[in-house]
User: What shape does this take?
Amino acid sequence: MKAHEMMIREVYKVKEDDTVKTVIEKFIKYRISGLPVVNDRNEIVGYISDGDVMRYIGKRKDIYLDNIYYSFVIKDDMEDFEERERRLLELNVLEIARKKIVTVDWQETIEEIAALLGNRQIKKVPVIRKGVLVGIISRGDIIRHAFKSLI
Assistant: This one.
């Protein structure tokens, strides 16, 4: 089975000029935890998750340097939680979204996608065709398709 045969075609997404407030509203309204960020040509330019929001409003800062993940606590940060919340809502989505996005081609097989999600420890992956967002596949989608005979 190929990605285009099992992907969700109606993808919730945000535009690159949206604010984080729009992201949070969609997280709440659609009960989701991540959104692709697209440009006017529907090409993916970022991905924002609830983890990106948590890192911003928390006092823990994460950085990636030479493919190594570092996490540390800011002790001299005097700004309170509510102020970080207010400031966060006004930010452009790309200020906290991930720019290195894992995607799959619309012709990828279910086995390749399952391995990618498992090895990278990610919950969902955008599906692209000729560089354009055409769908999304989650771990749950793969499990439902792979084991539909058990239901």
The CA atoms of residues 105 and 131 lie 9 Å apart. The chain has a mean pLDDT of 87. The helical segments are 3-6, 20-30, 50-57, 81-90, 110-120, 139-146.
